[in-house]
């Protein structure tokens, strides 16, 4: 990100900067404890979930991919239990943690594009409901490329992996 001539890197850092710069539309919870929890879960997604998702998507060997998908499911189960019955990770409206968790949205699109069940609906019903609420949101639709373009990207990028076989 480049703002006022100042470059910033790393998506989670950029989200914190956005929250602190444009205070009229906060993306972090107001409560300090809830902010800390959001940061914890964003770090979990960034350091635990995202690496195994990349491994599952890019694996050339079926066994390695199955193991990575198994690990992905373990992390998704943890997030599913954190979501509980909330509409979004942040509660009634989406925010920082929902943005950090968008890797789950991309995983659903990759699943469609590559024909591999990374995130089965029956195993993760809360995450599927969360995904649906997010993709139906007008602001989300404005900010994210069309699903077809993302699907084409996944096919082009990962089409030769074990996922496509």
Give keywords.
single chain; 65% helix; 165 residues; 8 helices; mainly alpha; two-stranded antiparallel sheet
Give the gist of this structure.
This protein is an all-alpha fold.
Question: What does it look like?
Answer:
The chain is mostly helical and 165 residues long. The protein is built from 8 helices and 2 strands. It has helices at residues 11-21, 32-58, 62-83, 96-100, 103-114, 125-136, 138-143, 147-158; strands at residues 2-3, 6-7. Helix 2 (32-58) runs antiparallel to helix 3 and helix 3 crosses helix 6. The radius of gyration is 16 Å and the shape is globular. The model has no long low-confidence stretch (mean pLDDT 91). Residues 1-26 form the GST N-terminal domain. It catalyses: RX + glutathione = an S-substituted glutathione + a halide anion + H(+).
């Amino acid at each position: 990100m480049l703002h006022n001539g100042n470059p910033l890197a790393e998506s989670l850092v950029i989200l914190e900067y956005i929250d602190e710069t444009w205070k009229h539309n906060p993306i972090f919870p107001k409560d300090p404890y809830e902010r800390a929890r959001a940061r914890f879960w964003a770090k979990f997604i960034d350091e635990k979930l995202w690496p195994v998702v990349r491994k599952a998507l890019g694996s050339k060997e079926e066994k390695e991919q199955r193991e990575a998908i198994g690990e992905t499911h373990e992390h998704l189960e943890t997030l599913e239990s954190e979501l509980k019955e909330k509409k979004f990770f942040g509660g009634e409206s989406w925010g920082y943690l929902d943005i950090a968790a968008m890797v789950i949205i991309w995983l659903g699109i990759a699943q469609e594009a590559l024909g591999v069940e990374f995130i089965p609906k029956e195993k993760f019903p809360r995450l599927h409901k969360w995904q649906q609420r997010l993709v139906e949101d007008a602001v989300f639709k404005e900010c994210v490329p069309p699903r077809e373009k993302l699907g084409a990207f996944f096919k082009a990028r990962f089409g030769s992996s074990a996922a496509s076989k």
